[in-house]
Amino acid sequence: MVEVTGQINAVRRRVGERVLEAGTARTSTVSQVYDTDVEDLWDAVTTAERVGRWFLPVSGDLRLGGRFELEGNASGTIERCDPPKGFSATWEYGGMTSWIEVRLSPEEDGRARLELEHIAHVDDDMWGQFGPAAVGIGWDQGLLGLALHLSAGGAPGPEAGQEWAMSDEGREFTRQSGEAWYRAHVESGADESVARACADRTIAAYTGSAE
């Protein structure tokens, strides 16, 4: 069983913008503190065998300049690697390229924080329809998988799979994640009614309840 509300509340979410050479990009950032140290957290998010336990099976050359591919999902190139502080990579999916930056830092109590920022030049119509939850819910699911993996001493987290995502518990997780991204969207300055409509459409799309 997943303590849905506790996991949702353990994550910080932020929506913003970043100016790149090609123009202004949208950013969606998540972060969570885990009951482990930075070195173990780095190993969990960069070792193919461990990534496959909590996220998706990954193949490729997991080093600076190498190409990676997540089974049934994105692929990309590792553009920066600074162990155990973080890495950045392209995120290529559906014919579009965006970027992820992963940052790890120690907490004063000996635990470690992971922060992931997804940076994308998004189609204004797509952003206007779905908003930050479109990628945010997926990253929330990833942080859940990592939390389960670390709390189980490195064991796989079956709750993070697609079957769980469509269970009653999984749908409730998606709903609460979408609501949390709605609040982050509003905090970024978005109109409340626009943010509400975006969140509702995205939650419906993830849970299979869209008409």
How do the strands and helices of this protein lay out in sequence?
Blueprint: H1 4-10, E1 12-20, E2 23-34, H2 38-46, H3 48-54, E3 58-60, E4 67-70, E5 75-82, E6 86-93, E7 96-106, E8 112-120, H4 124-130, H5 133-151, H6 162-165, H7 168-187, H8 192-207
Antiparallel strand pairs: 1-2, 2-8, 3-4, 4-5, 5-6, 6-7, 7-8
Helix pairs in contact: 4-8, 5-7, 7-8
Verbal overview:
Residues 36-141 form the Activator of Hsp90 ATPase homologue 1/2-like C-terminal domain. It comes from Actinomadura livida. Belongs to the AHA1 family. InterPro entries: ASHA1/2-like_C, START-like_dom_sf. This protein is of the alpha+beta class. The chain has one domain: START domain (Alpha-D-Glucose-1,6-Bisphosphate, Chain A, domain 4). The chain has eight helices and eight strands. It has helices spanning 4-10, 38-46, 48-54, 124-130, 133-151, 162-165, 168-187, 192-207, and strands spanning 12-20, 23-34, 58-60, 67-70, 75-82, 86-93, 96-106, 112-120. Strands 1-2-8-7-6-5-4-3 form an eight-stranded antiparallel sheet. Strand 3 (58-60) and strand 4 (67-70) form a beta hairpin. The radius of gyration is 17 Å and the shape is globular. The chain starts with a helix and ends with a helix. 31% of the residues are buried. The model has no long low-confidence stretch (mean pLDDT 92).
What distinguishing features does this structure have?
8-stranded antiparallel β-sheet, START-like_dom_sf, globular, 8 helices, SRPBCC family protein, alpha+beta, 211 residues, Alpha-D-Glucose-1,6-Bisphosphate, Chain A, domain 4
